[in-house]
Write a structure and sequence with these properties.
Layout: E1 4-9, H1 14-30, E2 34-40, H2 47-58, E3 65-69, H3 85-110, E4 116-123, H4 130-136, E5 140-144, H5 148-164, E6 177-178, E7 187-188, H6 199-212, E8 218-220, H7 228-234, E9 242-244, H8 260-274, E10 281-285, H9 294-307, E11 310-314, E12 316-317, E13 329-330, H10 342-345, E14 350-353, H11 358-362, E15 367-372, H12 376-385, E16 389-391, H13 398-408, E17 412-414, H14 433-444, H15 449-465, H16 470-484
Parallel strand pairs: 1-2, 1-4, 2-3, 4-5, 5-8, 8-9, 10-11, 10-15, 11-14, 15-16, 16-17
Antiparallel strand pairs: 6-7, 12-13
Bound molecules: 2-acetamido-2-deoxy-beta-D-glucopyranose (NAG).
């Protein structure tokens, strides 16, 4: 029996590490010929990620799965604002990865029973490591933490720029509508990721798109029936093959992965949800970078009081230092930010929390709606558990995701699609409580069209992962391709 070793390399940010750990699990659980090694680059972006990587090292991983923490490089500890920090980190970690993989190889050559190196899977933003794979003469694959439609848009923008000489930064504030392959409707250009509008960051974006075209194939956390239009559009023979292998979602629970303070919070939240009627709770949660200024928090609070639905609100405190990119923290006391008396007045219907075990909350039958920043993982979790989203995108490709969900797929409702969070400035747009109320009422409406559609998509997603389903088959084909790489 041929045994194959696959090396996975995420960029050092929470969502990306979690995603590749899930990919590794998926591979080893599916096929016992496969082994996986995940390299984690250090320093990671923020303290919660450090906690997570430490917990990984301490937890018992499934068989044939290992995590290697690369040494912390002092040269990289500063200045994540430098647009090249990621590239320079990858450059400086390359020799370490090479050294480690060489050792693995030497060992495997000594014993014919051990797995042979079959390839690398890189995060979309870690393809700078491709030389390492090329050096070992094995193929490299890319795992995309974005959806298939967004990949279409990357190729589309790169073709506009490289092929037709379009100055993409001019799309900022323009009213142009773009015919992006993979979307059924024209996309307002201003909903493109903000990095496209900045000359320096655009160069990085385009470089990623070009490199993505060289990969052996792209694994996407999506499923065919959900993004069929985009998956078909990518499969035009001109792009690398795509393998939709999702939806992958990660439960934190059975409580095992949680630290003790978290497991108390976890129990408290779950017990509260257990007491609520089915589909009655609006859940608000804006991701690991999601926080708002005081004025906006008051508009949200006002909306929640006004519409009167039950709610569970993950409210995080913005970084205190202006101009510094720092993830939010928990409030010591919510009264310092909420309108006076809010907590008392909503005691019967609502619960304000800090950290939230999002997947487990969405999986709970009491939850009926989800106000989200539309990170791709959150979108998939909404679809997986049949909870419609009210879209409030903040940064990265989230505006694009919101557009796809609301306009293209009809699986979400808009709070504000063109909202964006400026981390370095203070020109924050304020969304009015009226707009928030309207969207919450819409998603929470019993038997609404959007709720029915999301529930249906949820059933389909479950099937896609089972034997014979689209993602199941797609993963099988991918694994055969990997095994074929070893001679
Ligand atoms: C693209 O357009 C912007 C804004 O009009 C301009 O400042 C910039 O120089 C242009 N870039 C190129 C490469 O032509």
């Amino acid at each position: 029996m041929k045994k194959a070793e696959v090396v996975l390399i995420p960029i050092p940010a929470m969502g990306h590490i979690v995603a590749l750990v899930e990919v590794a699990k998926l591979l080893v659980e599916r096929d016992d010929r496969l082994s996986t090694t995940i390299f984690i680059m250090h320093p990671v972006l923020d303290p919660s990620t450090t906690k997570y990587t430490e917990s990984l090292a301490a937890s018992t991983l499934p068989d044939r799965m290992r995590v290697v923490n690369l040494p912390n490089l002092e040269s990289n500890t500063e200045d994540t604002k430098d647009r090249n920090w990621l590239n320079s980190m990858i450059e400086s970690q390359k020799p370490r990865v090479e050294e480690y993989v060489s050792k693995m190889r030497t060992q495997s050559q000594l014993s014919p029973d051990s797995p042979q190196l079959a390839g690398f899977i890189f995060d979309t933003f870690a393809t700078g490591m491709k030389d390492v794979a090329n050096g070992f003469g094995v193929p490299w694959y890319v795992f995309s933490a974005s959806g298939a439609a967004f990949i279409c848009s990357m190729f589309y923008l790169q073709a506009l720029h490289d092929g037709e000489g379009v100055n993409l930064t001019e799309f900022k504030n323009s009213d142009a509508l773009l015919e992006v392959p993979g979307l059924a409707n024209p996309l307002p250009a201003k909903l493109l990721p903000s990095m496209v509008f900045r000359e320096d960051l655009l160069a990085i974006f385009l470089e990623h798109a070009r490199t993505l075209k060289e990969t052996r194939s792209i694994l996407v956390n999506t499923f065919l029936e959900f993004e069929s239009y985009a998956v078909h559009s990518l499969s035009n023979g001109k792009n690398p093959p795509v393998y939709p292998v999702g939806p992958m979602v990660k439960h934190v629970a059975d409580g095992r992965d949680l630290r003790s303070d978290e497991s108390n919070k976890y129990r408290d939240i779950m017990e509260w949800l257990d007491d609520q009627p089915p589909s009655s709770v609006m859940f608000l949660c804006f991701g690991s970078w999601g926080s708002f200024c005081g004025k906006q928090v008051k508009e949200i609070a006002c909306a929640l009081e006004h519409c009167g639905h039950r709610f569970l609100w993950s409210l995080r405190k913005p970084s205190s230092q202006k101009g510094k990119i720092e993830s939010p923290s928990d409030y010591l006391n919510f009264q310092e930010i909420l309108p006076e008396g809010f907590l008392d007045r909503t005691l019967e219907i609502g619960k304000v929390i800090g950290w939230a075990p999002q997947v487990d909350i969405l999986a709970h039958p009491a939850v009926g709606g989800f106000a989200s920043h539309c990170g791709w993982n959150s979108i998939l979790e909404s679809v997986r558990f049949g909870v419609p989203v009210a879209t409030w995108p903040l940064y990265a490709e989230q505006q694009f995701n919101a557009f796809q969900m609301v306009i293209d797929l009809g699986l979400a409702v808009e709070i504000k699609m063109d909202y964006w969070r400026d981390f370095l400035g203070d020109n924050e747009i304020i969304v009015s409580s009226d707009d928030i109320v309207k969207a919450i009422k819409h998603v929470m409406e019993e038997d609404s069209e959007v709720r029915k559609k999301v529930k249906e998509m949820s059933r389909i997603s479950e099937k896609s992962l089972k034997d014979g389903g689209s993602s199941f088959s797609s993963l099988g084909r991918l694994i055969e391709d990997m095994i074929d790489n070893i001679s």
